[in-house]
TrEMBL record:
Source domain of life: Bacteria
Annotated InterPro entries: FAD-binding_protein (IPR028348), FAD-depend_C (IPR049516), FAD/NAD-bd_sf (IPR036188)
Domain FAD-dependent protein C-terminal: 283-479
Coiled-coil annotated residue ranges, if any: none
Protein name stated in the entry: FAD-dependent protein C-terminal domain-containing protein
UniProt xrefs under Gene3D superfamilies: 3.30.70.2700, FAD/NAD(P)-binding domain (3.50.50.60)
PANTHER family (alphabetical): FAD/NAD(P)-BINDING OXIDOREDUCTASE, FAD_NAD(P)-BINDING OXIDOREDUCTASE FAMILY PROTEIN
Transmembrane segment boundaries: none
One Pfam family it belongs to: FAD-depend_C
Amino acid sequence: MLRISEIKLPLDHPAEALPAAIVARLGIAPTDLLSWEVARRANDARRKSAILMVYSVDVTLADEASVLARFADDSHVRPTPDTGYRFVATAPADAPRPVVIGAGPCGLFAGLILAQMGFRPIILERGKVVRERTKDTWGLWRRSVLNPESNVQFGEGGAGTFSDGKLYSQIKDPRFLGRKVLTEFVKAGAPEEILTEAHPHIGTFRLVSMVENMRATVEELGGEYRFEQRVVDFDIRDGRLRGLHLHNGDYLETGHVVLAIGHSSRDTFHALHDRGVHIEAKPFSIGVRIEHPQSWIDRARFGQCAGHPDLGAAAYALSHHCANGRSVYSFCMCPGGRVVAATSEEGRVVTNGMSQYSRKEFNANSGLVVGIDPERDYPGHPLAGIALQRHWEERAFVAGGSSYEAPGQLVGDFLARRPSSALGAVTPSYKPGVHLTDLSLCLPDFAIDALCEALPVFGRQIARYDDPDAIMTGVETRTSSPIRITRGKDFQSLNVAGLFPAGEGAGYAGGILSAAVDGIKVAEAVALSLAG
Ligand SMILES: Cc1cc2nc3c(=O)[nH]c(=O)nc-3n(C[C@H](O)[C@H](O)[C@H](O)COP(=O)(O)OP(=O)(O)OC[C@H]3O[C@@H](n4cnc5c(N)ncnc54)[C@H](O)[C@@H]3O)c2cc1C
């Protein structure tokens, strides 16, 4: 089979245009094209007046060898890669059971792969099963009641459960582990199109049942989930992990632990630091969520073709390097979605975004964030980034009226550096509500300056991006982990054998797909160390 990539067709092409384009591209007789299937589908909307669909297709030909020889210098005609996943080990009969801390995408995939290899992992999760957790999360959104152990960050499915469910990543993936992740997601109930769409997404409702289905698979394979089991301390002796202390006083003896705790488990970060586990501060970003009507973004990106069913709701990615040396960029853009309350700690406000699969809600939202780094912004202590996050999250809580409403400001007022007092054409979606104020109360001056410089620049790239009525809510502080729990080539902590830091919290992933892929890699390392 051969993979032919970069086949471009007009947006509204008939179905038969694709095989015809394959035949024309390869210069073969139509009868020599024995079969074909789409491997990847994207759109190219750089020219709004001539939007293209761009395909990669896998083809079976009557004579593949001669086509390959003719296209030897063309990187868009290649043998179809083998993307199948192969297990690196099988559990010996007497293998001790490994432990996974965290049931987010990283922990879910670490647990799944270990279970598929026969290791019967124990998965400890501080939050609740996903349906219970959903009720608690709505408690904050609808009634301003936060459960610090069961919320957007904590519980089965991890941080990505109430999200847009975007499933793409910039990571290098020579072993096609991302394909393994997507294939398992489809088995668990994701739409098949995620295997071919260039920018697949699942939306929040489907994620909930997928997470449940994956749990059932792990349990059928002998794995075990233990919910509402928070790890509070680590028993480390002679440079080796010996066991885990749980919040209920239990002790779990174990020498192999995948640490997949996400970026918001600040109490656990402190416990690890107190036990001397090697931790470094790392860069992350802070800023706001910005909302526009989705129709403005569709029109700006797709022109007359806005609303076309093959294009869906338009997304964007923006970045600008500012005169003050800061970078501003859009983060986790959610087309047709809503802004959500994403704090896990009392007396703090954090924003993030999510969408349903249909992406049919009125507004587009995106993080608009400014890069910060330890040397310049939080020097000295490995956990100083957490203190900085907490500081601005507390300021946001107060600026929002100390009731879990988010502080908000219209873009026009923000650029004029005056507080907002009335909404314009854009209605914010954040629940439990938005308190109009001045966002400079809850962001550092350099971030305000950088955002003020970047907004008009972005307005020249996407019409009406800097419209005075567009609305911003804050603060967006949990863009990625503020720390790295550094690991060596064997995926174990630099100074604690048997502890395998993984996923976003450890600083090795930045999204659902990359966290899941990291979970697979770390599960393989655990399996190899257990299989001897
Ligand atoms: C609202 C929102 C929307 C998002 N949208 C997207 C998106 O569309 N696409 C995308 O790619 N990414 C998105 N993300 C980011 C994505 O969710 C994360 O990158 C990803 O979940 C990280 O996976 P993880 O497994 O490393 O950590 P997490 O998902 O954070 O999971 C960590 C788990 O560990 C548990 N835990 C923590 N400490 C302990 C402890 N001491 N004991 C026991 N259990 C513990 C937590 O309860 C949690 O369930 C979004 C995040 C949020 C919050």
